[in-house]
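Lecture notes, continued. The same structure-token format from the folding unit now serves as the input rather than the output. Read the line below as a description of shape only.
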């Protein structure tokens, strides 16, 4: 029997993969017995930050790893595809439908039992094998136990989540619907009430220079919520709070989440000076999240500043942005490419606590950890995925990066091995990398069945 601690993306995926491999699993989830500061339900795989799984084409590294996961029978990808909402060339989901899909599938699996309890310490060999997939919000007690086990390789950083507004409170006369460069690849089912996505999958709030200057001034002077040990706070570069970016320079936002490039306002025929994008957050299109607007500003100031955005003057906030603590280990010192720990082969880590960043990457690590644990339980040798696959490159990075400067990473082409004879055309090169990866994945999955 396998024990999986944590019912997030990684834990749910790990439990599913192990059960599908024919091994009984106990999935331990502490909610609702012990809630967290940011979770709102007791559902498995609840998304607490963005509702986006990012790019979904295989010429992009994260699109490629998603396709690899689909081919490996990922329950997370199956549920995400079923809960899809318009998001241009990205995969975004209705977070409630997604969590319900994962929860229902895992609960219904005959080989999985869900135990609602907090595991306060790293289990001994009485649980073997065991996967720790407690995510960025690992409980204080278990976090201390992990720290005792790995020593000073136990690290932490802070993450921030974006606000969500009620759709009916958006002034539609001031916004326009469009995807950047007109990239609309998601098609709603007939009758789904989302046919307007043909015009674009995002709502865009355009700003003039004067509006942007006033917004910027208010943003940099807004009062931030107090973060414990703030002087030593480390934010993940791929998810910086909007005000942290703003303090780096007046033009930073216009080259970041507020860049107007590719967003021509159909009413003027011109690009706005800056633009804030709103992404649909539910299938019913009644909630929209502010893209790239993760923040740690106090809620009072947050409402005041964000209502300076054209179209959001009377916005009702379903959820304010907030900061939460992410806990992770230094993978290169602790882990093997199979997500096993170096000092104990039957103990595995997966998800953000293992030192990856992102929904997809967390689920991908859980996928391999679940398969590894199943192999151990059946007395078979674990097999790491090929280095030339996206999922294998992620495992290689986590276990082989320089520990002195280690920081959690998303999957990128930069951590995948280059082609032997790469063509000059960038798109062709990316497609060849994808073809190589999918061929290697097929050979590996056939050999490990």
């Amino acid at each position: 029997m396998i024990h999986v601690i944590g019912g997030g993306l990684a834990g749910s995926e790990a439990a599913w993969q192990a059960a599908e491999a024919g091994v009984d699993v106990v999935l331990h989830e502490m909610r609702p017995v012990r809630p967290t500061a940011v979770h709102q339900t007791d559902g498995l795989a609840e998304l607490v930050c963005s509702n986006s799984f990012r790019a979904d084409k295989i010429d992009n590294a994260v699109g490629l790893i998603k396709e690899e996961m689909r081919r490996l029978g990922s329950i997370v990808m199956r549920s995400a595809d079923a809960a899809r909402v318009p998001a241009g060339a990205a995969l975004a989901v209705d977070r409630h439908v997604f969590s319900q899909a994962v929860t229902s599938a895992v609960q219904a699996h005959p080989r999985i039992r869900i135990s609602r309890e907090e595991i306060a310490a790293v289990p001994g060999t009485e649980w073997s094998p065991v996967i720790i997939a407690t995510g960025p919000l690992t409980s204080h007690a278990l976090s201390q136990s992990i720290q005792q086990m790995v020593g000073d390789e136990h690290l932490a950083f802070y993450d921030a989540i974006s606000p969500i507004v009620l759709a009916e409170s958006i002034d539609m006369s001031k916004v326009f619907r469009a995807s950047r460069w007109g990239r609309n690849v998601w098609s709603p089912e007939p009758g789904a009430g989302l046919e307007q996505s043909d015009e674009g999958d995002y709502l865009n709030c355009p700003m003039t220079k004067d509006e942007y200057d006033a917004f910027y001034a208010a943003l940099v002077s807004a009062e931030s919520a107090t973060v414990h040990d703030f002087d030593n706070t480390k934010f993940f570069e791929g998810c910086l709070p909007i005000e942290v970016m703003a303090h780096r320079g007046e033009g930073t936002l216009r080259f970041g989440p507020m860049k107007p490039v590719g967003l021509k306002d159909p009413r003027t025929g011109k690009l706005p000076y800056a633009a804030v994008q709103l992404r649909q957050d539910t299938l019913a299109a009644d909630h929209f999240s502010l893209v790239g607007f993760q923040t740690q500003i106090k809620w009072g100031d947050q409402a005041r500043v964000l209502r300076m955005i054209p179209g959001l003057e009377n916005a009702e906030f379903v959820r304010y942005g907030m900061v939460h603590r992410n806990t992770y280990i230094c993978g290169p010192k602790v882990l093997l490419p199979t997500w096993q720990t170096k000092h104990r082969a039957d103990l595995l880590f997966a998800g953000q606590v293992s030192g990856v960043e992102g929904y997809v990457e967390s689920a991908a690590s859980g996928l391999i950890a679940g398969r590894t644990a199943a192999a151990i339980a059946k007395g078979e040798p674990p097999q790491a995925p090929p280095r030339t696959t996206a999922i294998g490159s992620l495992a290689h990075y986590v276990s082989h990066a320089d520990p002195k400067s280690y920081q959690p990473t998303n999957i990128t082409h930069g951590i995948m091995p280059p082609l032997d004879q790469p063509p000059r055309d960038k798109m062709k090169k990316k497609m060849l990398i994808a073809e190589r990866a999918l061929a290697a994945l097929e050979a590996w999955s056939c050999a490990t069945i």
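Point for the exam: The two ends are 19 Å apart (CA to CA).
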